Amino acid sequence: xxxxxxxxxxxxxxxxxxxxxxxxxxxxxxxxxxxxxxxxxxxxxxxxxxxxxxxxxxxxxxxxxxxxxxxxxxxxxxxxxxxxxxxxxxxxxxxxxxxxxxxxxxxxxxxxxxxxxxxxxxxxxxxxxxxxxxxxxxxxxxxxxxxxxxxxxxxxxxxxxxxxxxxxxxxxxxxxxxxxxxxxxxxxxxxxxxxxxxxxxxxxxxxxxxxxxxxxxxxxxxxxxxxxxxxxxxxxxxxxxxxxxxxxxxxxxxxxxxxxxxxxxxxxxxxxxxxxxxxxxxxxxxxxxxxxxxxxxxxxxxxxxxxxxxxxxxxxxxxxxxxxxxxxxxxxxxxxxxxxxxxxxxxxxxxxxxxxxxxxxxxxxxxxxxxxxxxxxxxxxxxxxxxxxxxxxxxxxxxxxxxxxxxxxxxxxxxxxxxxxxxxxxxxxxxxxxxxxxxxxxxxxxxxxxxxxxxxxxxxxxxxxxxxxxxxxxxxxxxxxxxxxxxxxxxxxxxxxxxxxxxxxxxxxxxxxxxxxxxxxxxxxxxxxxxxxxxxxxxxxxxxxxxxxxxxxxxxxxxxxxxxxxxxxxxxxxxxxxxxxxxxxxxxxxxxxxxxxxxxxxxxxxxxxxxxxxxxxxxxxxxxxxxxxxxxxxxxxxxxxxxxxxxxxxxxxxxxxxxxxxxxxxxxxxxxxxxxxxxxxxxxxxxxxxxxxxxxxxxxxxxxxxxxxxxxxxxxxxxxxxxxxxxxxxxxxxxxxxxxxxxxxxxxxxxxxxxxxxxxxxxxxxxxxxxxxxxxxxxxxxxxxxxxxxxxxxxxxxxxxxxxxxxxxxxxxxxxxxxxxxxxxxxxxxxxxxxxxxxxxxxxxxxxxxxxxxxxxxxxxxxxxxxxxxxxxxxxxxxxxxxxxxxxxxxxxxxxxxxxxxxxxxxxxxxxxxxxxxxxxxxxxxxxxxxxxxxx
Length: 936
Known about the structure:
The chain is mainly β. The chain folds into 2 domains: 6-240 and 287-318 and 379-411 and 470-509 and 584-785 and 820-935, Beta Barrel (Maltoporin, Chain A); 789-818, no CATH class. It is 6% helix and 54% strand. It has 7 helices and 52 strands. The strands form 9 sheets. It has a 30-stranded antiparallel beta sheet that branches. Strands 1-5-6-4 form a 4-stranded mixed beta sheet. Strand 30 (641-652) and strand 31 form a beta hairpin. The radius of gyration is 29 Å and the shape is globular. Mean pLDDT is 82; it is low at 1-48 and 248-269.
C-alpha cells in the first residue's frame, strides 16, 4: 500500500481554496439524510424553502444520522438543484459522475464505478435499461431516466447498515419520492422552460407539474406528477480509439522516412506508433424524456400507514451516428512504397500522405470508410409498482414492502457503410500527428478528397444490416422488517428482517443483413451518388484536433429501398442478396437470479454516543443461459453466500463536534451482461464487449473515521478518512480475438483482478454567512494500490543468426499489475451562492482527476485513461411573486471537452511515467435554460 501523498494533497487543497476565495462564493451544499425509523426520530422537522433552508435541512439530518451519510433535499416542491439528480450528486464529497452525452448518467462513489454502487428508489431496486448499443445495461439505475422534479431528496450512504440492501462497495444512493400526507392539500407546483444547446443550435421545451390532495381528516391522499423534456443532443468527436499500434508492431517500411533521412523514398529502418484508424464522428439525437409518478397513501389511524407508488419513465432516443474513418495503419501497405510521403520522430508517425494507385495489382487494403448508423425508434423505459405498509405495535414497528419493477430497452441499428476503392487515385489520406502527447491524431478528409461534398463513384455502399436489440430487466421483491423497543443496557431497539428478490435479465438480437457483396464496384449496392439527395453534414470539430469539414450525408430512405429490393440469399444467385431474420445467438442470453437476505441489527444510544451494529446474510442462486456459437450453454452457480457485518458509532464530543466511525464488510455483484456467455460486437470498427461467466463478486473490508464541526445551523467543517481492503476487484481487459472469422482489435472482457487496497480523505467546508452569501468546498483524495492479475502474454518467435525460426511464437501466463479502474486520485467541488427574498444566484465548479479505464490487449498501444475534467455551472432565479420564480441557468459554461488517452506500451503504465497519446476527444457543448417555477 502506497503512502498518502501529503504534498500533492496540500497543493490540490491550496489550489481549490484559492479558487474558492477568488470567487468569494462556493457551491450549493450537498449533505443531508432522511430520517430512518426509530433511531433518528429526534430529527428536527424543517420546511425546506430556498438554498439556505435546504442547507440547514441537509446538515440537520447528516448530524443526527448514525451512519456516514450525505443528503440532498429539494429547495422547495419541484425545485431540485439541477436538471438531473446525478449532476447534483456530483457536489457530494467523494462523488463524481459520467457525462458522455452532456448530462449526468452514472454515479461513481469514492472511486467505485456506477456498476459497483447501489441506487434504490424508496429503498428498492429499479429495473434498468439502455438505449445505446455500445453500452451494456447493468444492475444500476440510469439517472437519465429520472426527472429531478419528481424527487423530494436523496441520501448517499457511504457506510452500510445491516438493514440497507447490500451491493454498493462505494456507497448506496437512496432516492425518495413525495408522500401526499406530508404535503398541504391542493398543492400545485411545476415548471416550464426552454433549453438552448450551442452545438445543435436548437431551442427545446420542458414542462413539469405536480398536484397533491388529502382529505380533511388527513387519512387519505394522493400526489401525482408528470414531466416532459425534449432535447436535441449533438456531439462532435475525434476518435482514434480503434487501437493504436506501437513501434514494435507498426514497422515503418521503405517510403516513410525520419526527418534526418534525405528523401521520402529512402529505405530507412525507422519505426513509429500510429493509430489503426481516425474517425470524424458526429452524433445527433432527438431525446424525449417522459415521466409520470403517482402515490396513493392511506393512514386510517396513528398505527397504520399504507401507500401504493407507481412510476413510469421513458426516454425516446432516436439518433444517428456518422463516422468518416481513415485507416493510417493500412496506408503502410497501400500502393507503391516510393509514392508514400511521411515522417517519423520520437517514435511516432507524425505525418503520412498517400492515395490509391490504379496500377496496383492484386488485393489492396481498404483505407477510407464512412459509417452512418440510423437508430430510429431506440428507447428505454422503467416501471415501478410498489406497495408499502408501516404498522406501529405497542413496543415496536412492522414494515412490509412488496412490488415489481421492469426495465425495457429497444435499440434499433440500421447500419450502413461506404468504402472508397483503394485503387482509385481520387481517394487519399492526409494524416498528421505533430504533437501526440498534447492533441489527438488528425486527418484532413476533405483536403484529400474534395469530392466528399459532391460524391459520384468514389465511394460505394458496401455493408448494410438492419438490427433490433431488445433487453428486459424484471424484478419481483418482498421485504419484511420488524423492530422492537428494548432496554438492554445502551441498546434501545432490535431490528430483524428478510428480503427475497427474483430478478431476470435477458437480451435478444435479430437482424437482416447483406450477402454476396464486395466493398466497391459492381458487387456493391452502388456508388454514393445513388444514395445522396444533396444533404451535407457539418462536422465543425471546434473542440478537438480535426479540422472542420463538410461531407455528404446519405439518404436513409434510398438505402432502405435498395436493401428491401434485394432478393433473398436463400433463392440462390451470385449478386447482392438479403438474409432475413438472422438471430444473433452470439449476443443473446438470459440471467435468472434468486437473491435472499436476512439481517439482525441493534440500535443503541447513551450519554454522548449512539450507533448501530448488525450482520446481514446474503445468498444467491443464479442460472445463466447463452450460446457457444449456435450451441446453447447453461451455467449454474448457487455457491455465493456471505455474512456482512457492520458497525456505526457516533460520539458527540461537544454540542457542535461529532466524531463518527464505522467498519463493515461489503460486496458488489457483477452486472448481468458481464456474467453472460455473450458478445456485443461491432465488426465494422473491430470493437466489442464480451461477458465472463467465471466472474466472481467483489468484496471489501472498509473503515471510516471522521470528525464534523457544526459551527452554525447551516455550516460545517468535516474531515473523513476511509480505507478499503478489496478482494477480486473488477477490471476491463482489452484483447485481440478472432470471433467467427473476424479479428477484433478491441474486445473488452471483464476480469477479476485479485486484491487491492486504497485509502483516502474527504474534506468539506460549508458556511452560510447570515448576510445572504454562502460558500462551500469539498475535496476528495484517493490513493489506490495496483492489483496483481494473470494474463496471457505473447512470446515472440526465436530465430538464429541466419534468420531460421528455432522456436515458434507462443502465449504464456504472466503476473502483472493492473490499476484499480475509475478512481480519480483527486476530485473537488467549489462554488457559492447569494440569496435574498427577491433573487438567488449560484456558481459551481466540479473537477476530477484522470482515471484508468481499461487494460491493453496484445496489439494495443497501452492502458486507456480518461483525462481530468472540470466544469462550470451557474444559476440565477428571480422571485416575481411568492409563488412564481423566473430562472436562468448555464451548464458547462466554458465548453469543456472530454479526452481519452493511451499510455505507450513498454513504459510504466501509470500516466505520470509514460508517453501519453490522445485517442478520443468529445465535445458536448454548452447548455442554457430560461424558464419559470410556480407553486400554489
